[in-house]
Structure formats: C-alpha cells, structure tokens
Automatic annotation (TrEMBL):
One function term, GO molecular function aspect: dioxygenase activity
Gene3D superfamilies attached to this UniProt entry: 3.10.180.50
The protein, known as: 2-oxoadipate dioxygenase/decarboxylase
The keyword Protease appears for this protein: no
Tree of life domain: Bacteria
Any coiled-coil regions, as ranges: none
Enzyme Commission number(s) from the entry: 1.13.11.93
A Pfam family assignment: HGLS
Species of the source: Iodobacter ciconiae
Length: 341
C-alpha cells in the first residue's frame, strides 16, 4: 500500500487503531481494496468503511486458522497479486434454547443489516437440513465481500441429536453488550458512526465470529457427527468463518495448478446450474480441540477446522454486473470440505 494512502485513508486509520499498524499493513498488502473505500479521514465512518474493516479482519482470522490458505496467499503476494475477497461463510444453529445468543441467523442479521447488508437470496440446503442466506452489501455489492450465513434446523433431526445439540448451545453467550447494540441502532439509523464509536464497535463485531458456548462433551460430538458433520463442526468451531473465498479469473485452471503443487484441493469443481458460478476449495485444516469425557475431564481430539475457497463468477447476461448469486448444490458440495474427521 502506498504510504500516502496509509496516512490519509480512514479505513487504514480505523484498522490501525483497532488492530495495530503492522497488522493493518499486512491486511492491505494481501487484500485488494477498492479506491471507493479509501477516502480521507472524516468525522464519521460510513457503514461501508466499517463493513470493509470488519471483513478484512475476519479474512485474516480465517487465514490464521488455515495454514494451506496462508501458504496460497503468501505465494500470491510473492507473484505481485492480491486476494479479491468474494465472501465469507459461517454456520448458525436454529435451536429453541440458545442461551443469551439470538438463535440461528438472527445473531448475525442484527449486525449485518446495520452495516448495510441485506439478504439477496435464500438457498434451501435440504440434504444438510439447513438454510443458507446470502447477505450482499447494498452500497457496493461487487466490492464488499458477501456473507453466506447458513442455519441448521435442529428440529429436523432425531431426538437424541436434538438433546445433544441443546447441551452444546443452551448456555451460549452474547458477545454484544448493550453499548454495542446501541451503536448498531445508531448505525442503522444514520448509516455512519463517529470515528471513536467505530473504534468501540469494530472489535465487538469481529468477536461475534467465534465460539460462544462452553466446551462440548465428546459423547455429544459423536452423537452430532453421526447425523450432521455441520453441527459437529459448529460444536467445536462455533460461528467462526467456515471459509473465506478468493474470487479468481479461472478457478478450474487454478485448481489444476494448485493440485500440481501438492495443495490438498477438492477433487472436482462445483459448477452452478447456470454455469456462471464455479467453486472449489482446499480441504479443511485438521485442528486439535478440547472436549469433556464422561467424567468431565478434558480430552484432546483432532477434528476438522476451517478451510479456504476459490470462486469464479461470470457477468450476468446482457449486463456488466457480476453474477453474485450462489448455488445450493454448489454450497452443499463445498460444505463437504469439513465432513472428514
């Protein structure tokens, strides 16, 4: 990033105050940022700038959890290229008892809408007993990365599964305090916040994308895994980014190239019914997580963590606009990246 942009950009100034200068320089070095988001510092921070700051921090958070994704980005930077962040995906649980955390997508609807995002499409993920919602930014839809928020419907599974799922999430915390909810209400009304308020809200927003429940029992994990790899994943990873996605020109050629370099990439590319959206991914990083055994003693097990994805998008027919839609079949295929324990 050029020095003058770093010195004058409100986005850079906001990230520097929250994440530090070194981290901010790293973010700008690896993520492509549209010039429209690099305006000078002003008294108030727009919802677009705040959304971009949050997304950049979440991208880095995902990258830290996926070593092979970090390797890919490092190699891309060495070639003089940056990531075009297309979307991040997260999973939620629609359960009757979810502690202090709003159930399902509502936990994120309350933050995404004030930031300027709106549901563009709803995708039934029937094989997974889930529903996916694509949140696209109203101000800069092709520039600010989308969110694919999936919601798992606990009531559609067996009673044993429902009991295990409730034991996992029934005491979930709400990471947002009343002061944060007040700032979100202001943001929703005015579409901006003061710089000082943005500094307060930004880390709280990033903190929403984490595990909000207590350490799960191993027996519950096994019960969940028998019916839903997705709910088992949620029991250890919570609302963290399931994956972050790089928008690339030719995902099929990239997949072949990465495979030749030994990357653990998906065997096939998922292609939407229209052919306009093509996706593939690196397999999930395997991570060590703590569980409780039958005597409530901590035990460590290796389970699937997050992964890194690639997508290519064509333009809409007779339009210069990108096809920003998703595809339910594609999504269900990509979700399998976390299924192998």
């Amino acid at each position: 990033m050029e020095q003058n942009v770093f010195a004058t950009s409100q986005l850079a100034q906001l990230l520097t105050r929250v994440a530090g200068e070194q981290k901010t320089r790293q973010l700008f070095a690896m993520i492509e940022v549209d010039p429209r988001l690099l305006g000078p510092g002003e008294a108030r921070v727009s919802r677009s700038v705040l959304a971009q700051a949050m997304n950049m921090m979440l991208f880095a958070q995902n990258l830290a959890a996926v070593p092979e994704g970090a390797r890919y980005v490092t190699e891309k930077q060495a070639a003089g290229e940056k990531v075009l962040f297309d979307h991040g995906a997260l999973r939620t649980v629609d359960a009757p008892r979810n502690g202090a955390l709003p159930h399902g997508e509502l936990a994120f609807k309350r933050i995404l809408e004030p930031l300027g995002f709106a549901v563009a499409n709803v995708y039934p993920l029937k094989k997974l007993k889930m529903t996916g919602r694509a949140y696209c930014h109203l101000d800069l839809p092709e520039v600010i990365s989308q969110f694919f928020v999936s919601e798992l419907h606990v009531e559609q599974f067996s009673m044993n599964f429902q009991i295990a799922a409730e034991r996992v999430v029934h005491n979930s915390r709400d990471p947002l305090k009343p002061e944060h909810l007040s700032l979100l209400a202001q943001l929703s009304e005015h579409h901006s916040l003061s710089f000082d308020d943005a500094i307060i809200l930004l880390p709280a927003l990033v903190g929403c994308f984490d595990v909000q429940h207590e350490v799960p029992h191993w027996v519950d994990y096994e019960t969940l895994l028998a019916e839903s790899a997705e709910m088992a994943w949620i029991s250890t990873e919570g609302n963290r980014f399931n994956h972050a996605t790089d928008r690339v020109a030719n995902v099929i050629a990239l997949a072949d190239d990465l495979r030749s370099k030994g990357y653990p990439i998906k065997d096939s590319v998922e292609i939407s019914g229209s052919g306009a959206v093509r996706q593939t991914a690196l397999r999930a990083a395997m991570v060590q997580r703590i569980f409780l055994d039958e005597k409530n003693h901590p035990v460590t097990r290796t389970v699937p963590g997050s992964f890194y994805e690639f997508i290519s998008r064509d333009k809409l027919p007779d339009s210069k606009a990108l096809d920003l839609r998703f595809d339910a079949s594609n999504a269900q295929g990509i979700f399998k990246m976390t299924a192998a324990a």
